[in-house]
Amino acid sequence: PIVRTWFALTAIAHAQGRTDEMVRAFAWFDPRRNTFPDSPFGRVMHGAVDARAAAFGLCPVFVAPDSFLDAWNETPGLPSWYAAIELVLDGWLNAGRHELVTAALTRMQAWEQFPLTSALARASSDLMGARLGFAAGDASAASGLAERSLGYARTVGAQWWIVRALRARQMAGEPLSAQELDEATAIERRLGLPPP
Predict the structure, then answer these.
(1) Using CA atoms, how far apart are residues 78 and 51, in angstroms rounded to an integer?
(2) Which of 43, 138, 158, 180 could join 133 in a cystine, given CB atoms 3.0 to 4.6 angstroms apart?
């Protein structure tokens, strides 16, 4: 239970820029890293903790190896899982490994055929598709996927995904309405997120 709690808390601390929480979390994780069971799920979750810690200068920059793709054969439904895989995909995008992001998204899209796939899974998949489209210079595709992600996120009230989908549309060059800008700003304030 402790480790899964930290998975969620490190996602929040990273989003909020909370150095104090990340220092506490990494001090707990780092000495225990060789005691955790090895699994595709575990590798991604622990890799995400390392990526978050690296953003605070607590360890070297972490870019997931190709073998992490095995994790996309699973369909866990935890919000902390989606936050982790999105961070791994962001790392691949920043490293120019678009082929790995494409492969992961292909597997995520296959989840949509499963009747129990959540709206949050779909929101996450489309948000990352939007980021890939933006990185590839296809603003139109990025905007469309961000809009679809927003719709899924709204159905479950997933505030963090709602605001990121709104900001992704904005990054793709689609102006937000005054109401949407107010909504994004209000969510960021409520969640303690820094300004975009």
Answers:
(1) 19
(2) 138
Distance CA 109, CA 58 (A): 34
CA-to-CA distance for 164 and 125, rounded, in angstroms? Answer: 13
Q: Is 179 exposed, middle or buried (0-12, 13-18, 19+ CB in 10 A)?
A: exposed
Among residues 195, 179, 192, 184, the alpha carbon closest in space to that of 161 is found at 184
Q: What contacts 79, CB < 8 A, 6 or more positions away? A: 8, 120, 158
Q: What percent of the chain has pLDDT over 90?
A: 82
Q: Which residues fall within 8 angstroms of residue 33, CB to CB, at 6 or more apart?
A: 46
**Whole-angstrom distance, CA of residue 98 vs CA of residue 100:** 5
pLDDT at 108 over 90: no
| Residue 188, token pair as written in the block | 């960021």
Are 129 and 105 within 8 A, CB to CB?
A: yes
Structure tokens of 148?
Answer: 């679809």
pLDDT for the residue 76: 65
- Cα dihedral: 117, 147, 95, 39 (round 10): -10
Q: Could you tell me the two tokens for 122?
A: 């779909």
Say which residues have a Cβ less than 8 Å from residue 77's Cβ, sequence separation at least 6.
118, 120, 121
In 10 A of CB 1, how many CB atoms?
A: 5
